Structure formats: structure tokens, C-alpha cells
Amino acid sequence: MDTSEPMTDEDLAEIEALANAATPGPWYVRRLDDDFAMSLVAISTAPDTGLGERWPDYDHYEIVAATLVQHPRYVDVADERWDENAQFIAEARHEVPRLIAEIRRLRELLAIADQDLGEA
Q: Could you tell me the pTM of the whole model?
């Protein structure tokens, strides 16, 4: 991805399509723990209860993604930012559509301003 190029309307539409195709939000960070997924840090459609539930006491259908599964070591990023990554992913579900809407709103304002300048 070349970040030096301006984002086109088509780029925004592609990002919006990705967001629309994803599991509906809101998403939350969940901390779960069991013999199969020790210290699981997950992104979920249900809020964290603070109880660190063990399987099968949580609904696996609520889990969207995981940023840490230590035993066995399925998911364990080298920089140990699993909590930060989980928070980013969970917030992105809400914030990406907001950013798209804000870009479109600002573009509309710029178009109006350009039109006003052209008429002046």
C-alpha cells in the first residue's frame, strides 16, 4: 500500500465494503482462560465479564479474533502488545466507519467551498 497517494472515492468504497462485510459491532476485548487457550486475549461481540471464563463457560461463537493464545502457542506476537492490538482491532470496528463518514463529510465541504470560490 502506497500511503503517499491520495485516497480515492473507490478506495473509500473498498474499505467501507470490508467494514460492512465484517461481523457487526460493537466489538470488545475479552480475557478468557482455559486449558486449551491459556491467557486468551480475544475480540468478541460480547463484553468482558472480568471473570476470565474457561471453556465451555463462554460462547465461542462470540469470538471474532484472538491476539494471544499462549498454550499451545498459537497466537503470541513477539512485541507482547496483544492487549494493545486487541483494543485497536475492537475499536477499529466502530472507528473505521466513522472515519469514512468524516472523510466524505469533509470532501463534501471542500466541494461546496470550491464551488463557492468558482462562483465568486
A: 0.81
